[in-house]
Design a protein that fits this description.
By secondary structure, this protein is mostly helical. Helix content is 72%, strand content 0%.
Length: 219
Amino acid sequence: MAHLSRVCLTGAIVMLVASGCVKQRTTLRPIPAPPNPQPVVGADVPTRVATLERLSDTYSRTSNELPGRDLAEHRKLMAQVFAQLEEILPLLEGPNPGAEFRQQIQVIRDAQAELSSGPADLSPEPTIDVGLRAARDVLTSIAQKEYYDQTKLTMLFDQLAAKINDLDTVRGPLHQLETGEAVGITSNIVREMTTALSQRLAAEQAPESKPSSKPATER
């Protein structure tokens, strides 16, 4: 009986020790990194304007090369389009973009990655459509907040909406052509916004006119 008691006691101690070891290990999962990191955009407006003007020119040249000579080149050019939009849109938005903006930028980033390194035997059309819709949504949101006074943008956004809707009804070479025209419209929108931002900066930096201190000439 004494031997049996010692065995039971030893077993109980082992169980308690094992239980204590288990409790010492955390059961919490590591905190994941926040999704869609916020793009870093400088608050220096002159630098933003200068960078936007340069990127806008590059984006315009890329849009003029669309739709490309074949599907492979079209795919490569559209990857460049989305990569350039990743740089342009945060500059148009300005510092401290919201969560929705960051989510749309992530969609564009994913489209760029898929077109750059995804399987070549898969049609790029769905990826292109999703990326263009995200770009349209971002540009529309920026226009409503910061460029609502630019009447020319209304016409351009109407054209862009119609063109993107057409993408659902076409395939193959015609889809590539429609895509090129849609990107061309976004390029015009980017240029209009860049010009408007540049004009605002010039107006803010213009010296205020001061009344002349010279006495009026007597006649």
